[in-house]
Design goal:
Strand order of the largest sheet: 2-8-7-6-5-3-4
EC number: 2.9.1.1
Shape: globular
Number of strands: 13
Protein name: L-seryl-tRNA(Sec) selenium transferase
Structural class: alpha/beta
Pathway: Aminoacyl-tRNA biosynthesis; selenocysteinyl-tRNA(Sec) biosynthesis; selenocysteinyl-tRNA(Sec) from L-seryl-tRNA(Sec) (bacterial route): step 1/1
Cofactor: pyridoxal 5'-phosphate
Bound molecules: pyridoxal-5'-phosphate
Largest sheet: 7 strands, mixed
Helix content: 40-55%
Main location: cytoplasm
Length: 480
């Protein structure tokens, strides 16, 4: 491989006055490092692609070293995974498009352990008999919520679909008109009902639904009464909802199960951490027979949906063939179990569960962090923008507590404006440059500035290292 490169014969297949070097000659002259990183096959293919571009382009022919460098750059870009880490500085802590909850290291390690080795996923180590995958988390969920039984599926949308299908197929499901919500994407309660094979029986009005509305709707065709957490909206003013305790009593009297789709469903009382209150799963189970909630919203674990509640109803859910179609992988159980275990030690939860840690950060601490980082960030922006610090408002995200917000602080990057106009375009360009970094930095544009809410910034060194690539990019194109 390291043999001296023979003087190439004049054998270019395409006789060209522009003298494009041959593939063989370029590969032959490659350094061992270039060949070792990707192998001869991939490197040769990349050289061919670059040469094809040069032929098609018709411009000046770069020298051999530049051609090889471009081939290496193409290979490096190809090797970069499509799904990769970013800095979420949007101010939305549980950002669905940016992957929602961050897992604690312990959970990531638990996942890695069962990925590279066989596990007892469905194997009872005590008896050697077949096991049940939900067994790894069911007892923990029951202990933390007061439920009698629980199952885990792909996400909360799947949990709702499964509950509806298992408990009310070909029957009526009674829902208040104030709760026929769209959660985002294509999850609309009335559509899910249809897909689950249920008939929607709307009761009440958008703003007011009374106990008697439910009482009049319940009958022999009723399969289920469902409550839905409005999640991403709130109605204010002249409103009324049926008293939950009375509604539960009514359902029990008529022998109809009551399901509550909590959406986020917190396992702890957020008010105790200084956050706006959100119904806990335990409280919801005191006035419902089954509840459904997400694993990667306030719970702070992985994408999954949990159905918890009365044993007889959960048994019907578990037996439903859809459960098999909606089941989750061992990675999900490993991560969920590790996170649920953190809840057994409430005093340590805030420090160890990233979602709770980030949600409870104090505005003053975030502002101090912003002041501290501002000079280093300004330096790395290399004259693109000035940096200041301003108060801002973070959101919990994922439909939790839509009208509640958290005071925070942001780095405000105001693009330098030589002409004094067109700030919007410069902001979009700066935001784009930040998105193109090797570890992309995602902020929010408002008032002619790119704002980076630091509530969710823990890895300061990594953040500054990511921004350093801006300075290097600047050096590389000083001439343009
Ligand atoms: C978020 C949410 C869902 C969907 O949960 P996913 O885990 O995203 O599938 C369903 N219902 C409510 C009320 C929600 O807030």
């Amino acid at each position: 491989m390291n043999a001296p490169v023979p003087t190439p014969p004049a054998d270019d297949p395409v006789p060209s006055p522009r003298r494009i070097p041959s593939v063989e000659r370029l590969v032959g002259a490659a350094s061992p490092a270039e060949l070792e990183t990707y192998g001869r096959t991939a490197f040769t293919d990349a050289i061919r692609t670059v040469l094809a571009g040069i032929r098609a382009g018709g411009g000046p022919v770069p020298d051999a070293a530049a051609i090889r460098a471009e081939a290496s750059a193409r290979l490096a870009a190809e090797r970069r995974p499509s799904l990769r880490p970013v800095f979420n500085l949007t101010g939305t802590v549980l950002h669905t498009n940016l992957g929602r909850a961050l897992l604690p290291r312990s959970a990531a390690e638990a996942v890695a352990a069962v990925m590279v080795q066989a596990s007892n996923l469905e194997f009872d180590l005590a008896t050697g008999a077949r096991g049940e995958r939900d067994d790894h988390v069911e007892a923990l969920i029951c202990r933390l919520t007061g439920a009698e039984a629980a199952v885990v599926v792909n996400n909360n949308a799947a949990a709702v679909l499964l509950v509806l299908n298992a408990l009310a197929m070909r029957k009526e499901v009674v829902v208040s008109r104030g709760e026929l919500v769209e959660i985002g994407g294509s999850f609309r309660v009335p559509d899910v009902m249809v897909r689950a094979g249920c008939r929607l029986r709307e009761v009440g009005t958008t703003n007011r639904t009374h106990l008697r509305d439910y009482a009049e709707a319940l009958g022999p065709r009723t399969g289920l009464v469902m409550k839905v957490h409005p999640s991403n909206y709130a109605i204010a003013g002249f409103t009324a909802a049926a008293d939950p305790v009375a509604l539960h009593a009514l359902c029990r009297e008529r022998g109809v199960p009551l399901a509550d789709d909590l959406g986020s469903g917190s396992l702890v009382d957020l008010a105790a951490y200084g956050l706006p209150p959100e119904p806990t799963v335990r409280a919801a189970l005191e006035r419902a027979d089954v509840v459904t909630f997400s694993g990667d919203k306030l719970l702070g674990a992985v994408q999954c949906g949990i159905v918890a509640g009365r044993k007889d109803l959960i048994a019907r859910v578990r037996k439903n063939p859809l459960k098999r179609a909606l089941r989750v992988d061992k990675m999900t159980y490993a991560a969920l179990e590790a996170v649920l275990r953190l809840y057994l030690y409430p005093e340590r939860l805030r420090a160890e569960l990233p979602t709770l840690r980030l949600l409870t950060r104090e505005r003053d601490a975030i502002a101090a962090q912003a002041e501290r980082l501002a000079p280093a960030v300004a330096e790395r922006l290399a004259g693109r923008a000035t940096v200041s610090v301003a108060d801002c408002i973070s959101q919990i995200g994922s439909g939790a507590l839509p009208v509640e917000t958290l005071p925070s602080a942001a780095l405000v990057l105001t693009p330098n404006a030589p002409g004094g106009r067109g700030g919007g375009g410069r902001c979009r360009r700066l935001a784009e440059e930040l998105r193109r970094l090797p570890v992309p930095v995602i902020g929010r544009i408002s008032d002619e500035a790119v704002r980076l809410d630091l509530r969710t910034l823990e890895d300061e060194a990594g953040f500054l290292a990511a921004l350093a690539a801006l300075t290097r990019a600047e050096d590389g194109r000083r001439t343009t």
